[in-house]
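General statements about sequence and structure are easier to judge against a single worked case. In the encoding step, the backbone of a single protein was reduced to a row of integers, each denoting a local shape. The record that follows shows the chain in one-letter code together with its fold in token form.
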Amino acid sequence: MEKTERNAPCWCGSGKKYKYCHSAFDDRLKRFAAEPYPVPSRDLIKNEVQIEGIRASSKINIAVLDYVAEHICMGMTTAEIDEMVYQKTTELGGVPAPLGYEGFPCSCCVSINSVVCHGIPDDMVYLEDGDIVNVDVSTIYNGYYSDSSRMFLIGDVSGEARRLVEVTKKSLEVGLQEVAPWKRLGDMGAAIHEYILQNGYSVVKEIGGHGVGLEFHEEPFVSYVSKRGTEMLLVPGMVFTIEPMVNMGNDAIFIDEEDDWTVWTEDGSLSAQWEITVLVTEDGYEILTY
């Protein structure tokens, strides 16, 4: 950890002297650094200005998903959902973060039934009766990033599909009970994994959550098959997504060879995902997006 003089401006950019800002915080962090699992680097700890910027971006992200929730319906194409996301995001002053990201061609991801994530909107793919659909929206606003996704039930959805969606959403609440400063990120992932297994489902291992705010994807990688007492230390100012991908069958997946984006369940079973973004605070957490 880089040394900062006590009377120098704090490294976080608050404008306060270091001794009045992050000095005691760094002393505590040093004690944890001796343990075998990682502590966050300074660039992962957001200051108040950055947090306010992420909150502003998050408000747009939430508004866009609210708009989708009001208008999504049977018979609509996934391309029409993408157009809604683009129009509403730009109307509110934001930029869709997925558009052009590493070549991704659309403004959001729309994943139906056995598509785990990264479904590419298409004007030939229609929402049908009984579908379960994930719409994943990410927003850039004044240089700050936000990210969340929701599940939507189309028409007459089967009881087993509905249960998968409900259990997946409940798993976020279970995970949030483990989010607190000076705990380990693995505690949250383990709690989600245990809950999902108890309900007879599996959790995708290869794809997880991520830090977010100043970039679309930041450290740490957030696993939902982790062990308690492992993974990165949680500290105030960290921002990351909680987004377990839950399969009705086994956890095996594959990436579509044709588009090199769409992730499918290998056994053809249904998959569900909800995503929120959380800020670790001094006494717990704040949900920034949902």
Q: What stands out?
A: The chain is about 30% helix and 20% strand. The helical segments are 23-33, 48-71, 78-91, 159-176, 185-198. The chain has a mean pLDDT of 96. The longest strand covers residues 132-141.
